[in-house]
Amino acid sequence: MHNNLVILAGGASSRMKKEAVLDNLSPEEITQANERSKGLIGVGASGRPLLDYLLLNAKKAGYKNIYIIIGEQGNLFKEFYGTQNTNNNFHGLNISFAVQYIPEGRIKPFGTADALFQAVEQFPELNTQQYSVCNSDNLYSAAALLALRETDSPNAFIAYDRDALEFPSERISRFAIAKLDKNNQLLDILEKPSAAVLQDYKDVQGKIRVSMNAFKFNGSTLYTHLKNCPVHPERDEKELPTVLLNAVKEHPNTTLGIPFSEHVPDLTAKEDIADVKEYLQQFYPVLDWDA
Question: Which residues form the Nucleotidyl transferase domain (predicted)?
Fold first, then answer.
């Protein structure tokens, strides 16, 4: 099993920064939502950020080395998790920071695939190892993160049961869906699916599966696809699902969709903050790093 987890935290958080009139958020919470990276918004006990809880679950799953990809203005991460660029000890986790630089001529980062490519360029040891990748603004369970460590498949992702996600149906309907074969090998990922195609995308359990950006990769075989990732024609970004599909085309039957049926708390917009706070109060009343 591998011990490396790469956390994507260098995005622009543009949807979180959109104006919203909410009576269940304090002025401080609104300020944090407008100024901080989403994973650093204080939704937990004593105002601790969501990322604490993701790191807790990563530790429970057995990860040792954490690489957090931050933006060029991401120094606040170092106030929480260690002032050095590499090898910070945070509750027994070895935390290092990679920086996603914005290319000249752009005002926003170049997407998740670009973030990971910059990270493996800064930490080339990842290109000879296996590693997991996930978002900083989703709270994946320790069980899901452990499943990524345990799989023998060269590449994998957590294939979530769409019906188990506790989001509004309109929001869920926009999630990209994954097409798996009878052995749960990835065949395709469809963005913005229409209701007419859902029947064709059901897996052997009759479930519609979605990706929430929780992956396991073989560094040596993924590198070329990261480096050569094309730009998405609509969003003008380089995205990890594109990398994954290109890897599948070249190496069929090497990307396993691991079926999971559970909710994944998500901080995308200000409207999510109260829901995530309530979830943490219910399921994580204390942050117990020694459990």
Answer: 34-251
pLDDT digits (tens, 9 = 90+) for 155-172: 999 999 999 999 999 999
Tell me the pLDDT tens digit for each residue of 208-260: 999 999 999 999 999 999 999 999 998 899 999 999 999 999 999 999 999 99
**Cα 187 to Cα 268: distance, rounded to the nearest angstrom:** 28
The chain-wide mean pLDDT, for the chain, equals 95
Residue 90 zone, left/alpha/beta (φ > 0; ψ -120 to 50; rest): beta
pLDDT score, position 83: 97
Is the CA virtual torsion 206, 261, 115, 171 positive or negative? Answer: positive
Report angle CA 116, 117, 119 to the nearest 5 degrees.
Answer: 65
In the three-class reduction of DSSP (H, G, I as helix; E, B as strand; rest coil), residue 36 is classed as: coil
CA nearest neighbour of 4 among 168, 222, 166: 222
130-135 vs 177-180, strand pairing mode: unpaired
* 43 Ramachandran zone, left/alpha/beta (phi>0; psi -120 to 50): alpha
| Interhelix angle 112-122/219-227, nearest 10 degrees | 120
- Inter-axis angle of helices 273-283 and 50-60, nearest 10: 40
Query: Whole-angstrom distance between the N-terminal and C-terminal Cα of the chain?
Result: 21
